[in-house]
Recover the amino acids of this structure.
């Protein structure tokens, strides 16, 4: 099967890392295609970045339909555009935050998230609440490092995660740690060994969940919420989004 | 004061209607500027449309900074891009859904929303929950009519709203009716008379709340969640969003 | 328009302060009438005081009907008698706690309240929950000072608010501060400057929301919950409450 | 022991009925004193009536302190003034709504309330939510009959309860029925036989819970929320409430 | 009346202590029968122990039917098997955790639980949530001592409870303390004196609630959730559970 | 890998069906071992049956440790003993209800469950709530058929599911249907075709999730809630549960 992993930001070095993580988790007969959108931000660290990454994500989903993709993974821990992505295709689409919390809840009774800048705490709190996980998530721990700081200085990154992960275990009593950014996959194994609790990277979780749903032959429900978008005109820089739509009408 | 009312869709006839409603509610010394974005969908009836309307909305917010705008109203009942808009400016930004539910809760103990197509019910449920109104909102009633159907055939529109409004009062015991689309302002008064309960149009509510916040001299908190976006590169059709940013760095 | 601001306690010096705050926020064509009830407690710092302030509040609402009042503001951060007030008049009635949390949620993603004695914490927690704001309110911070202590010793008062406000910002990560007592209006501006986040006084918020609702021509829904009280006999010291009622029968 | 049962309304015929129910449930060595306040409404059917009944209720609690009362029952299904009552005495105070829902939840997984006029539905919904029973209470069923209609025409009353009780069992799948008014005790037994599920009258539940708490030697916590009210001046018709207070200072 | 108090663990010394507490609280005309099951764990400190205690508890409930028991108390602070117990008998069954939280909520606005090992915190959190008490319970405080450590070394036990109880009052602002284990009854009185807030032992609370429900002549609803189990075959070590069932068929 | 699928009831014909479904979903290199416990009920249709199935389930988990099992699936839609199972092994254990709701929430915005007898509705409601799915699950639809009726008369079974599934789609607007019993796998495909929405059988979902977690090399967190049970004596018919324990001490 073919799974398209979309890194919603446009930093290709990070996409490479995500691709690596995805391939290491995928089955040998699963083809991983990892991409960044053709438009959007270099990293996602605010509502602004998140919303502006979505057009590019949707475009990649739409292209995926023609590319014979069987399932999609949105590889950013805000799950940007997830619900819209489910509208434009009937192939399964999973987010890495979503996959992380569901996976974690099958391994641990309570857990914490460790992520990037403090400003995204509210965004992630509301996200995990939307997945019904408010009681299970003990804390969203942020760091002073941005998304690309983890790319640029992985040593500082792992040190920061180690520190916050330890505090999550000791102060929150977190029974698992969720890495709240798609660029942290490489740190998961060593952290897990050090911390002694499951450390969950969303990219690998998302890829495996995508494989699972394809194996089960399931597709997104097209009954109501996730029907194909209504056909209509789009103008300006986003004009193409109104064209060649697979739509309900 | 100058209030910019942004109709997130690109249907100018609808923007005209919104402008008319906004002006009729604004104080004589309030200048209303009603616009549609330069890019995006002709109407918003799905997550797809909603997310794709946001870049255009943000662009209008940013332009507003240079235009000397004192406050912004996002005039679509999904409040698209509201949190991002609060990041790019320190001027108050209010959504019409948000304004509607807060206003309604000061007039009625329980209420229902009447809106467009069934597919957006989930979206609106999650939205009113995010405002803490899950207990007060009895029902989100949808109609078979799309956003622009109400523009094209106002007579059918009012008839549909009358019918669902009546059922909201009789079956839900709704003590107020919220019109769940920016293009329904013109119907509010006659519906209110017929139904005997407050009928709330979000555009006028949003404009008045915006005036109030400006009068109070309040600005959006820039401490954490709504800080200016981090400065970074944007590529492709959205390249401009990385340029000339008012940012934290 | 004429807005009656009811300070539910009987301390006229405090009513003067509230009147001053209300007038400073009101439009020039808005007439502010600030009163204390003819019966009740000198301050409200318990359920006991709160409930016993309500008969006096209701009396003032009823009188307001004859005085040509267009809207009412209940100026105590427990919103005492708010729902009953909405029964005895069809003019809009807003509470200052209610107004504060709705206003704050349009300016900040998360916030804390700073108020008087520790014993009222439970009362205020339950109140903000009833407005659906449990997720947004990070903390109700109390001080060892009572309501009238803030009147008697404003210097100690501002110092106390400064201290708790600072802890709210630093420890709670509050993005706005709500002053949880009607007698704190005078401190709002200097606190806002010092703390660097919106500081919200409920009296001015309430007055502006009242103006807004009158401007919109909206009245309280009389369909069900807020119908006029059933006509019936009242005895004893409250005998008058059964007389000359505007009632449903 | 001596239990004072306070019917918060001033209709003595109803107080008699409540006294009868209380005595029939009390142990032989429990002395029941049933009273109505000296001031307030003839019945409670709105927020207005509810709040205006509270001063009279509090007065009776305070008198009870001198009368050697061991525990108090507030015998109206809105539990008016319950939290204030717990402030003015350290003797246990229980409400009949509170007692009913806790008792019911030890007998049935899900249940419905049958009560008087439609207008009080919101009030009772918010009340049962405040006791954490939102998931257990399936429905608050109202009837077109007021409180005193049940006194005046018990035959119509029982018929109405039978009808709504039956619908609660058949349509809501209620596994117990709670009689949502203090004047319905006399109907409980025959309804229980007919409906085949527990039918709970709050007055007898409240009296037995009060006995239990006295037996256990427990008193209301005076640490924080329920401390004695702060000593202060009261004016006007409620002047006495500031006098001879048992207070914290 | 005859109340059977079931200590779900098989440590008879602890059952003796529970019997003592139960008898000290029961009325003189109440016969207390305290037992341990014939099978199961020596103490309950995990989901494992809890579930494995349930067959023994159910067996004791069933025997109670023949022994002329009027009501049952399940004396472990996890309320093991409570819902199943309500299926196999129509006599009232109360759990001591359930009784504790309902009793506490009639005495205090907010409270904390002090219990045994850290590992059961999740279990107790989910339990109090299931009783709707998430807002009232401020904290579940655990200790490094197991259930039988409190039996073996009561002096260390009381010291531990004193310490955590004090922190509950000072740090959580708990207005009552709930002893989260059936073997702590003996410590309740002295702790209450020291801490100055109600200290609630579940065994005595459960016994008194059981007496109350018997006095009221109420039985468990057999309409739906708590119907007698369906008759069916059981095999292996639990074979007897399929025999001589009082069942619906 | 080796996955042990435990049908918690002792009806081997049903275990065969579950094995068939599991094998059809498993990868070719996954070995499925499907068993029924050596003790317990022939079917699970009450709290009684559910709790009494748990000792047998736990025994099978423990045996699995010696059998070289890599992961466990508990194949009953009440997920009996799930938390205890996670204590006795560090291999992943998933429940089929849990798997179903997480899978469904990646395919559909809102869904309903169709299951056996009405009496288990409360049990399943509380279960899906414990997974945070209260907002997504629109309805738990029951049928007059018991678990084994579906085995005995599959034609009546499919007809019943078809009927309730249709009502779920039409009346609840369910966008997916969850089959709320392990014995319904065989009906899933034809129902999905007829109803036009995803129809989810928990057994196949559980098996695939188990494979995924094994692939990811993840194990249950042993930090706190799911630590191995404390070592202790067990007596009577369950005596073996105290022996040869893998425990924390």
């Amino acid at each position: 099967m073919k799974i398209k992993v979309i890194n919603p930001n446009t930093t290709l070095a990070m996409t490479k890392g995500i691709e690596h993580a995805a391939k290491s988790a995928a089955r040998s007969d699963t083809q991983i295609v990892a991409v960044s959108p053709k438009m959007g931000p270099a990293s996602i660290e605010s509502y602004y970045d998140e919303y502006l990454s979505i057009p590019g994500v949707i475009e990649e989903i739409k292209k995926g339909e023609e590319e014979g993709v069987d399932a999609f993974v949105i590889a950013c821990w805000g799950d940007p555009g997830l619900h819209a992505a489910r509208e434009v295709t009937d192939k399964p689409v999973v987010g890495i935050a979503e996959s992380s919390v569901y996976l974690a809840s099958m391994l641990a009774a309570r857990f914490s998230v460790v992520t990037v800048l403090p400003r995204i705490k509210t965004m992630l709190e509301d996200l995990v609440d939307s997945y019904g996980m408010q009681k299970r998530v003990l804390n969203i721990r942020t760091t002073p490092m941005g998304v690309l700081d983890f790319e640029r200085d992985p040593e500082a990154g792992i040190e920061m995660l180690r520190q916050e992960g330890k505090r999550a275990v000791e102060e929150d009593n977190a029974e698992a740690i969720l890495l709240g950014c798609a660029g942290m996959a490489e740190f998961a194994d060593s952290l897990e060994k050090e911390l002694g609790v499951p450390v969950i990277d969303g990219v690998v979780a998302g890829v495996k969940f995508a494989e699972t749903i394809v194996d089960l032959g399931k597709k997104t429900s097209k009954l109501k919420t996730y029907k194909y978008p209504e056909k209509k005109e789009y103008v300006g820089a986003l004009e193409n989004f109104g064209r060649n739509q697979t739509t309900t009408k």
